[in-house]
Amino acid sequence: MPLSNRHLLGLYGIPREDIQLILDTSSTFREVLERPIKKVPTLTGKTIVNLFFENSTRTRISFELAQKRLSADTVNFSTSMSSTKKGETFKDTVKNIEAMKIDMIVVRHQSAGVPHFLTKISNANIINAGDGRHEHPTQALLDMYSIREKFKSFEGLRLCIVGDIAHSRVALSNIHGLITMGAKVSVCGPPTMIPRGIESLGVKVLHSIDKAIQENDVLNVLRIQLERKAGTNIPSVREYHNYFGITAERIEKNNPNIVILHPGPINRGVELSSEVADGPYQIILNQVTNGVAVRMAVLYLLGTL
Amino acid sequence: MNIKAKIIDEAGLQRTLTRLAHEILERNRGSENIVLIGMRTRGEFIARRIYEKIKEIDQSEIQLGILDVTLYRDDFRTRLKQPEVSVTDITFDINEKDVILIDDVLYTGRTVRAALDALMDLGRPNTIQLCVLVDRGHRELPIKPDFVGKNIPTSINEEIKVKMNEIDKEDSIYLVETEEK
Questions:
Q1: How much is the pLDDT for A80?
Q2: Other C-beta atoms within 10 Å of B75: how many?
Q3: Do A137-287 and A16-136+289-303 fall under one CATH topology?
Q4: Is A281 in CB contact (< 8 Å) with chain B?
Q5: Nearest CA to B139 among B167, B161, B111, B116?
Q6: Please, which residues have CB within 8 angstroms of residue B8's CB and are 6 or more apart in sequence?
Q7: What is the pLDDT of residues B67-119, one digit of tens each?
Q8: Do A36 and B82 touch (CB under 8 A)?
Q9: Mutate to test the interface with B, among A23, A37, A40, A298 (most CBs of B within 10 A)
């Protein structure tokens, strides 16, 4: 049974069966990553373009490795070296790249909706690798895969997303995906970082980190995105850490069994203390490994449709 | 799809598997260096049965793995249906081993070609020997089985259905006619 859509733009409105299929398929590729030769010939002859209009280390490397391990041919594009700098429009850039016969585009852009726009001007399969504050579906899928590894099922699982919810595409994709799969989702952060009306998505709002640790099985802790002007929503990074930073002490006091996720990069001493970032509660590097497997699954499922 | 003949029944299947187990042991002079690898889906169950038989005959412990070759197939571009992938489960080292690759029906040989590529990515076995329950002919690649349960010459619009108790609730092999090709 294939996926119901030939693009992956976000997790909003994606049926449960599709998420299930992606997560199940990811296990196959997780096994491939443990082999001495971590490569399969499945996407031989497919050409994939990585269009990154915004900086990224983890996601870009993760996508690139996933593509190489499926034997696809890849081309990387980043704005710093592109002709958009010379005044070419986004649409012309994409049209020109597509004229070179490509099969898939992985896109990251600072504006929400760019991947959707791409589906209208291109025949390639489009994968959203993060668009503005909107969605980052593969990050949410790898978070969910890592959670499922630990807990087996999402049904009734209590999960809280902590941090700057308003500026976070990771938060939105996680909320949509986890609710579809039956988890109980809440968000926690200072009121300036929680969008008004977010309850309408079916999430609970908390403002106390102690309570969030007590009441949940998993915390997905977001980075305080100083480059996205998150700094104006909090008086200081230090104050944020005092009220919302997760420390070993807080975990031991409230719920030592909690599992901590973080999409990276970590601001040590802000959202997580170093003790927690390296401690026994977190599965952060596991997430990174799983990220390659999940992206291989998405590329496989869309690329062989 | 209508059944033309029941070629092997439960007792017959037992006898065939017992013979295959003996042949594998004879050719390899015992079970010392062999590992069994079954190909999903039905090859897995056949491999498990042969594994039990070899354990019984040789009184020794051997290793059994399951191989999924979906990622190595050559028909992604021509198929209408996306094949479902599942996990390869080979937890041991196949380097320098005599690998017995087990499948239910040998037909065009394309699945075996995919399996050979998959195995080569896992290591460098001493030998790979192919064991199939049924060889129905019509090879499209130069591949020959080492151990054959039964040779059943078929026409192109016939098909061999292997039923295994583990998923089909019966042990038997049928020759069926497909509507069209």
A1: 67
A2: 10
A3: yes
A4: no
A5: B111
A6: B16, B150, B172, B173
A7: 999 999 887 766 667 777 888 899 999 999 999 999 999 999 999 999 999 99
A8: no
A9: A40
Among 3.30.70.270, 3.90.550.10, 3.90.950.10, 3.40.50.1370, name the CATH number for the domain at A137-287.
3.40.50.1370
Q: Cα(B169)–Cα(B15) distance, rounded to whole angstroms?
A: 19
Res A88: pLDDT: 85
The helix/strand/coil state of B96 is coil
B98 CB near a chain A CB, below 8 Å?
no
3-state secondary structure of A186: strand
Residues 284-303 on A with a CB inside 8 Å of B are 300-301
Query: Domain ranges in chain A?
Result: 16-136+289-303, 137-287
Chain B nearest-CA residue for A37: B121
Q: Which of A41, A300, A301 sits opposite B72 (nearest CB)?
A: A41
- Per-position DSSP letters for A9-55, written without gaps between them: --STT--HHHHHHHHHHHHHHHHHTTSSS----TTTT-EEEEEESS-
Res A230: pLDDT: 61
Inter-chain residue contact A28 with B87, CB threshold 8 Å: yes
Model pTM score: 0.89
Tell me the nearest-neighbour CA distance from A124 into chain B, angstroms. 16
Q: Does A27 touch chain B (CB under 8 A)?
A: yes
Lowest mean pLDDT among A109-113, A193-197, B76-80: B76-80
> Please, what is the average pLDDT of chain A?
93
Domain boundaries, chain B: 2-177
Complex ipTM value:
0.77
Collapse the DSSP code of A104 into the 3-class scheme (helix H, G, I; strand E, B; otherwise coil) and give the result. Answer: strand
CATH architecture for residues B2-177: 3-Layer(aba) Sandwich (3.40)
Class (C level, CATH) for A16-136+289-303:
alpha beta
Both tokens assigned to A210: 């102690």
